[in-house]
Automatic annotation (TrEMBL):
Domain annotation HTH luxR-type: ranges: 132-197
Encoding gene (name): vraR
Native source organism of the sequence: Rikenella microfusus
Keyword Transcription regulation attached: yes
GO MF annotations, alphabetized: DNA binding
Pfam families: GerE
Taxonomic placement: Bacteria, Pseudomonadati, Bacteroidota, Bacteroidia, Bacteroidales
Biological process (GO), any one: regulation of DNA-templated transcription
Record-linked InterPro entries: CheY-like_superfamily, Sig_transdc_resp-reg_C-effctor, Tscrpt_reg_LuxR_C
Name used for this protein in its record: Response regulator protein vraR
Alphabetically ordered keywords of this record: DNA-binding, Transcription, Transcription regulation
SMART domains, A to Z: HTH_LUXR
């Protein structure tokens, strides 16, 4: 059973077709204040530039905006949005491997009610996925310290020496950081640290 509708879910749309994008915007408007459109983009690169500031809860994506090599790495492409739900905008057949990268799919022939229902389900599923990931999302003080060191480009050995801990402990902390943030790369963790005011731009220049 779905939870009751939540208001103000920040929603971004990545769709090269102006007609499809406008149609989706109209459908979401019919749901009242439940979905707040924070941006409509015709390509993922443009969205990626704005995403850290927008921090959407929901992203509707047309899979065709990714080339074949990138389709299997949708989440890594947007790794700075670890808690967002990604929903594919489907025109026809979507291969199973591509579909697995999304929390849900809406078809352009779905009626308004069905689209809204699918979006709610995707958001609910994403929330449960985040809540069941083990420990809470918040980083501990030590994990924040390790994250800062990683963002500054330090190696595991350098981090261990600086914090007087073993390399094994550093690796353990980094695994916890990755699990909690959903971010696997150093560049992604650096963006996370900047956005959360853990470091200044001058620290990484």
């Amino acid at each position: 059973m779905n939870s009751s509708p939540k208001k103000g879910r920040k929603t971004a749309i990545i769709e090269p077709s102006a007609i499809i994008a406008a149609g989706l915007k109209a459908v979401l408007a019919e749901a009242g204040n439940e979905f707040e459109i924070c941006g409509i983009f015709d390509d993922p690169a443009h969205f990626a530039e704005r995403a850290p500031l927008l921090q959407p809860d929901l992203v509707l994506v047309d899979p065709v905006v990714f080339d074949f090599q990138k389709r299997a790495t949708v989440h890594s492409y947007f790794e700075h949005l670890p808690q967002a739900a990604f929903v594919a905008i489907v025109y026809g057949f979507i291969d199973p491997e591509t579909q697995k990268q999304y929390h849900g799919c809406v078809h352009i022939y779905d009626d308004s009610r069905k689209i809204v229902r699918k979006l709610r389900q995707a958001l609910d599923d994403r929330t449960r996925e985040t809540e069941s990931s083990g420990e809470g999302y918040e980083l501990t003080d030590r994990e924040s310290e390790i994250l800062v060191s990683v963002a500054k480009g330090m190696t595991n050995k350098e981090i261990a020496d600086a914090h007087h801990i073993s390399v094994h402990t550093v690796i353990s902390h980094r695994k916890n950081i990755t699990r909690k943030t959903g971010i696997k790369t150093v560049s992604g963790l650096t963006v996370y640290a900047l956005l959360n005011n853990l470091i200044d731009q001058s620290d990484i220049e």
